[in-house]
């Protein structure tokens, strides 16, 4: 393997200085994705800046009733945190639906946001891939794509974003905080991930060299009744073929508020705003839920071998919203 | 020391933990890639990135300048090999193992060079930097059941068996099933990847390897390198799984070549992605099954035709149609295995070759016939129990399939089953149950063993058996203890070393049966020689055995292991998720030597059946000709969460006419398991799934017009 330089960052300014905007340097946190990519040759960094020991491992309430989550909080600690479980159950469920216990013990919040697609063409350096080698082509469009995007895909790239956590964060309007040499910045999750477009190699709006320091979750009373359901090709330890993060507030048989996001259907976590508009104010019935799912999925453009994702997401949306309604009725 | 202490308690039949279990769980047991050697060189294989073509050039010069690089071997520089021979199993070598002999590339992932360096990291970096220029030729990997170039092929059994008038019997049948079933490309993927270290010492070649038969690999290497077999020693003490993939492969041959050229020890290990190309695999199959039956379910016609795929450079036939030759008779009975040559790696033996995919098709078709006839699926099978071999006409050694079904049905609660499909719901899940029959041949092959009475009162057994995780070392300890009439604690079994002489491989479910015959023969004779109170000399007293003549004298019968598989599944029709809720397998598999490890083998096979039914599938990209997602993240096997309560047990299966009464148990556990699950999915949903794996997308779109 290629030799690389390993540095452990003492603090956030030190991490930024060690990375020094070098395009061949990478921050290393849990390493659960980056190290795999280094083994397969997709990533060949000359320097790793280890940020795992930075003091960014706290989950704290914010004055407005939300939560601030440090970038190096492990996935396990995030899912186990009592305030996350109480206020944002959808987030705890999404994290627990991903990976394995061992991986969640290593993986961090910041790293989870930045994990790369598991498209098999992206991870195989012998193949063309516009995300890995811009302009080389996308073999998935005509090749094996039964778990590729049906929403928002471009002709350049049909890969899906792999994170479960980020789907819940999309539904919760999370804000990503980062630090650069020029000072701090923040990005709402909806703007954090860039559409694939013609530049699928540019995945986020983070400035070059920026270090994610944490997330904030705004207060979201609707999330007290929320759920994440993930469908995959085995019961555990597999990426989603479709997932739904949903929160629902039903009073007097009417949907007062709703949050809905889809996973494994697009190059980024897919906030289903069209469906939310159908839901809010409508009677809390299976018919409404089907209408909402149908409205969102009207934009779906399946490839020859992933058309099943449209009925899958339709059924899953109706099922999860109906389950939440059933909970509310109890 | 005298030989007075003997025990009357039998060791065979009571559960014993693995004799090497502590070594394995503490890490003391060394696997092939762990054994240290001084001056070790590390080889890294470079595989082709084109699916068909010729090597134009390999730019080894710059790579030889890289840090630590010792050598680059390719078709221009490697030692010449002999490939025109027939090996121990009666088959010719797979040319994939005869590396670097020509410039032709017959499939993606063909070994084109070996880079050797002082560290594995240097070897890998150099191998990945090696520029190989190809002349690319068009490739063809398009496999389907209608290929006109598919032709009948024998492989390990005759291609075709045929009796009666199929058309007439089908026409005269009250009920006919005529369906196509498919199974995908599947891979062995033992936990321990293939690894071998080769070194020369005093004119003798020694290879530390992970394989299914040390004597087998010696024979292959001696033939390939034109060596006297007596000057080659292969050791394979601990093996982390094989499943048919661990014979002679490219890595041992490349290691021997490099050790020969460099005159120092060289290790070559396969990576997980490389195993997709170089470790063999199970071919996909397309199978057509036609069954015709009278109104009462008696079979008039049985036609099973299976097409599989092999490489252009080597022919291996996955004989899916073979299982019907044992299981069911009919007035007209036709079975046929065909194969088509495509630009893909060589398939090979993989756990229950033939029976595993074949039983999926045949046992699914039986379930469909039961539905058409309105007969319980178990009744239908029992009504068609043959009196003699349907094709061979030979008598059966005890065939206790009926007892398996009766005991299984009782314990599974089959009598309470409502036969109607699609009527049981629990929340979002539809529930169903299914069953299928299983069988696998119980063969044996010649083996040798040596048993020594040591001066300290202990006994040592030496045989070139292989314990590939099955518990064979422990089983042979128990067998030897009983044959000697002593407690197992006084017996040490040494295996996995070709220096112990010739022995059958751990394969074909024949290992323990074959080795036990040799161990019992030697131990029995030793016991007779040892008089009570007799003094044992310092070098001990050794008796050797060879079972060749004994096996040749055995009467030809249809001898098989049998099983009845039961599964309960839950299917969410909204998402296509299928979950197995419980499985039960009842087997008739001869004398069970060690119930503890036997249960592990049976349940392990059944769990593999879950993977086969729901998960396993290697997809090839038609444009590139290679697998997509060639790692264990892309190639799914069942996780713990997919494995419910799986129970395995057995019925009495005594054969007084057999010298050991032991049958193989390594493969029968997977046979029929996928069919039982698929039949349960039908019972849950009312929809038949004739293509494996039963993925969520297939469940979602099955039976819909979309």
From TrEMBL, chain A:
<dbReference type="InterPro" id="IPR051312">
    <property type="entry name" value="Diverse_Substr_Oxidored"/>
</dbReference>
<dbReference type="InterPro" id="IPR005107">
    <property type="entry name" value="CO_DH_flav_C"/>
</dbReference>
<protein>
    <submittedName>
        <fullName>Oxidoreductase molybdopterin binding subunit</fullName>
    </submittedName>
</protein>
<dbReference type="InterPro" id="IPR016169">
    <property type="entry name" value="FAD-bd_PCMH_sub2"/>
</dbReference>
<dbReference type="InterPro" id="IPR036318">
    <property type="entry name" value="FAD-bd_PCMH-like_sf"/>
</dbReference>
<keyword id="KW-0560">Oxidoreductase</keyword>
<feature type="domain" description="FAD-binding PCMH-type">
    <location>
        <begin position="1"/>
        <end position="222"/>
    </location>
</feature>
<dbReference type="InterPro" id="IPR036683">
    <property type="entry name" value="CO_DH_flav_C_dom_sf"/>
</dbReference>
<dbReference type="GO" id="GO:0016491">
    <property type="term" value="F:oxidoreductase activity"/>
</dbReference>
<dbReference type="Pfam" id="PF03450">
    <property type="entry name" value="CO_deh_flav_C"/>
</dbReference>
<dbReference type="InterPro" id="IPR002346">
    <property type="entry name" value="Mopterin_DH_FAD-bd"/>
</dbReference>
<dbReference type="Pfam" id="PF00941">
    <property type="entry name" value="FAD_binding_5"/>
</dbReference>
<dbReference type="GO" id="GO:0071949">
    <property type="term" value="F:FAD binding"/>
</dbReference>
<dbReference type="InterPro" id="IPR016166">
    <property type="entry name" value="FAD-bd_PCMH"/>
</dbReference>
<dbReference type="InterPro" id="IPR016167">
    <property type="entry name" value="FAD-bd_PCMH_sub1"/>
</dbReference>
TrEMBL record, chain B:
<dbReference type="InterPro" id="IPR008274">
    <property type="entry name" value="AldOxase/xan_DH_MoCoBD1"/>
</dbReference>
<dbReference type="InterPro" id="IPR000674">
    <property type="entry name" value="Ald_Oxase/Xan_DH_a/b"/>
</dbReference>
<dbReference type="GO" id="GO:0005506">
    <property type="term" value="F:iron ion binding"/>
</dbReference>
<dbReference type="Pfam" id="PF20256">
    <property type="entry name" value="MoCoBD_2"/>
</dbReference>
<dbReference type="InterPro" id="IPR016208">
    <property type="entry name" value="Ald_Oxase/xanthine_DH-like"/>
</dbReference>
<keyword id="KW-0500">Molybdenum</keyword>
<dbReference type="InterPro" id="IPR036856">
    <property type="entry name" value="Ald_Oxase/Xan_DH_a/b_sf"/>
</dbReference>
<keyword id="KW-0560">Oxidoreductase</keyword>
<dbReference type="InterPro" id="IPR046867">
    <property type="entry name" value="AldOxase/xan_DH_MoCoBD2"/>
</dbReference>
<dbReference type="Pfam" id="PF02738">
    <property type="entry name" value="MoCoBD_1"/>
</dbReference>
<dbReference type="GO" id="GO:0016491">
    <property type="term" value="F:oxidoreductase activity"/>
</dbReference>
<dbReference type="InterPro" id="IPR037165">
    <property type="entry name" value="AldOxase/xan_DH_Mopterin-bd_sf"/>
</dbReference>
<dbReference type="Pfam" id="PF01315">
    <property type="entry name" value="Ald_Xan_dh_C"/>
</dbReference>
<protein>
    <submittedName>
        <fullName>Oxidoreductase</fullName>
    </submittedName>
</protein>
<feature type="domain" description="Aldehyde oxidase/xanthine dehydrogenase a/b hammerhead">
    <location>
        <begin position="26"/>
        <end position="138"/>
    </location>
</feature>
């Amino acid at each position: 393997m290629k030799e690389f330089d390993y540095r452990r960052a003492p603090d956030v300014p030190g991490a930024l200085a060690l990375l020094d905007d070098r395009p061949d340097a990478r921050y290393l946190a849990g390493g659960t994705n980056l190290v795999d990519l280094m083994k397969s040759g997709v990533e060949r960094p000359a320097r790793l800046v280890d940020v795992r020991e930075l003091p960014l491992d706290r989950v704290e309430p914010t004055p407005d009733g939300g939560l601030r989550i440090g970038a190096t909080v492990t996935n396990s600690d995030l899912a186990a945190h009592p305030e996350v479980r109480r206020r944002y159950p959808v987030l705890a469920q999404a994290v627990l639906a991903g990976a394995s216990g061992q991986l969640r013990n290593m993986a961090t919040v910041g790293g989870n946001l930045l994990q790369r697609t598991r498209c098999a063409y992206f991870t195989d350096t012998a193949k063309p891939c516009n995300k890995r080698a811009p302009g080389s082509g996308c073999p998935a469009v005509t090749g094996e794509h039964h778990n590729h995007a049906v929403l928002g895909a471009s002709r350049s790239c049909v890969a899906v974003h792999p994170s479960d956590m980020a789907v819940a964060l999309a539904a919760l309007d999370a804000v990503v905080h980062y630090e650069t040499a020029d000072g701090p910045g923040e990005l709402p999750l909806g703007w954090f991930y860039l559409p694939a477009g013609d530049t699928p190699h540019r995945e986020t709006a983070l400035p070059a060299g920026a270090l994610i320091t944490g997330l904030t979750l705004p207060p979201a009373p609707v999330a007290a009744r929320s759920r994440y359901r993930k469908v995959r090709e085995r019961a555990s330890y597999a990426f989603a073929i479709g997932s739904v993060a949903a929160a629902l507030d039903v009073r007097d048989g009417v949907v007062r508020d709703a949050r809905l996001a889809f996973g494994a259907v697009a190059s980024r976590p897919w906030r289903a705003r069209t469906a939310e508009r159908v839901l809010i104010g409508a009677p809390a019935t299976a018919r409404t839920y089907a209408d909402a799912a149908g409205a969102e999925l009207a934009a779906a453009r399946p490839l020859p071998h992933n058309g099943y994702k449209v009925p899958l997401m339709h059924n899953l949306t109706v099922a999860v919203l109906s389950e939440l309604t059933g909970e509310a009725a109890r | 020391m005298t030989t007075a202490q003997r025990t009357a308690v039998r060791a065979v039949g009571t559960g014993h933990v693995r004799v090497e279990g502590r070594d394995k769980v503490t890490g003391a047991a060394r696997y092939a890639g762990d054994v240290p050697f001084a001056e070790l060189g590390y080889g890294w294989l470079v595989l082709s990135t084109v699916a068909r073509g010729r090597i134009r050039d390999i730019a080894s010069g710059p790579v030889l300048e890289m840090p630590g690089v010792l050598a680059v071997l390719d078709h221009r520089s490697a030692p010449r090999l002999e490939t025109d021979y027939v090996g121990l199993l009666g088959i010719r070598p797979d040319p994939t193992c005869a590396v670097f002999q020509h410039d032709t590339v017959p499939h993606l992932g063909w070994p084109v060079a070996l880079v050797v360096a002082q560290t594995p990291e240097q070897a890998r970096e150099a191998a990945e930097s090696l520029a190989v220029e190809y002349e690319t030729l068009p490739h063809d990997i398009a496999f389907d059941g209608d290929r006109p170039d598919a032709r009948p092929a024998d492989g390990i059994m005759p291609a075709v068996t045929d009796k009666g008038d199929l058309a007439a019997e089908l026409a005269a049948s009250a009920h006919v099933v005529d369906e196509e079933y498919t199974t995908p490309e599947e891979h062995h993927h033992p936990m321990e990847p293939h690894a071998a270290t080769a070194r020369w010492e005093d004119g003798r070649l020694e290879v530390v390897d992970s394989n299914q038969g040390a004597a087998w690999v010696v024979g292959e290497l001696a033939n390939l390198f034109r060596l006297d077999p007596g000057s080659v020693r292969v050791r394979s003490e601990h093996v982390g799984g094989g499943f048919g993939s661990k014979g002679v492969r490219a890595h041992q041959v490349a290691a021997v070549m490099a050790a020969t050229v460099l005159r120092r020890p060289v290790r070559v290990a396969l990576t997980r992605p490389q195993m997709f190309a170089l470790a063999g695999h199970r071919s996909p199959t397309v199978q057509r099954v036609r069954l015709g039956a009278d109104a009462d379910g008696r079979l008039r016609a049985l036609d099973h035709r299976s097409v599989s795929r092999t490489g252009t450079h080597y022919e291996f036939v996955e004989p899916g149609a073979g299982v019907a030759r044992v299981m069911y008779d009919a007035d007209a009975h036709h079975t046929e295995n065909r194969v088509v040559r495509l630009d893909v790696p060589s398939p090979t033996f993989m756990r229950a070759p033939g029976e595993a995919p074949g039983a999926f098709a045949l046992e699914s078709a039986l379930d469909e016939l039961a539905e058409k006839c309105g007969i319980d699926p178990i009744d239908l099978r029992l009504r068609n129990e043959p009196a003699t071999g349907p094709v061979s006409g030979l008598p059966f050694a005890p065939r206790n399939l009926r007892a398996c079904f009766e005991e299984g049905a009782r314990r599974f609660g089959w009598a309470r089953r409502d036969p109607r499909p699609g009527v049981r719901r629990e929340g979002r899940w539809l529930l169903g149950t299914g069953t299928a029959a299983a069988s696998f041949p119980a063969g044996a092959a010649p083996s040798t063993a040596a048993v020594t009475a040591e001066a300290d009162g202990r006994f040592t057994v030496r045989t070139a058996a292989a314990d590939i995780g099955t518990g064979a070392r422990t089983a042979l300890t128990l067998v030897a203890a009983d044959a000697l009439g002593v407690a197992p604690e006084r017996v040490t079994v040494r295996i996995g070393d070709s220096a112990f002489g010739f022995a059958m491989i751990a394969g074909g479910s024949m290992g323990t049966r074959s080795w036990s015959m040799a161990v019992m023969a030697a131990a029995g004779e030793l016991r007779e020689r040892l008089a009570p109170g007799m003094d044992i000399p310092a070098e001990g007293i050794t008796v050797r055995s060879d079972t060749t003549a004994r096996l040749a004298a055995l009467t030809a019968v249809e001898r098989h292991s049998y099983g009845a598989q039961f599964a309960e599944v839950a299917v969410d029709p909204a998402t296509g998720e299928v979950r197995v809720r419980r499985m039960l397998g009842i087997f008739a598999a001869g004398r069970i030597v060690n119930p503890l490890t036997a249960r592990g083998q049976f349940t392990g096979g059944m769990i593999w059946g879950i993977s086969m039914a729901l998960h396993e599938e290697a997809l090839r990209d038609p444009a590139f000709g290679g697998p997509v997602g060639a790692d264990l993240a892309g190639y799914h096997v069942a996780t713990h969460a997919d494995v419910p309560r799986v129970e395995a047990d057995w019925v009495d299966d005594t054969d007084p006419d057999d010298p050991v009464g032991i049958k193989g148990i390594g493969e029968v556990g997977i046979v029929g398991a996928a069919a039982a699950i698929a039949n349960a999915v039908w019972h849950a949903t009312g929809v038949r799934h004739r293509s494996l794996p039963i993925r969520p997308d297939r469940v979602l779109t099955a039976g819909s017009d979309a």
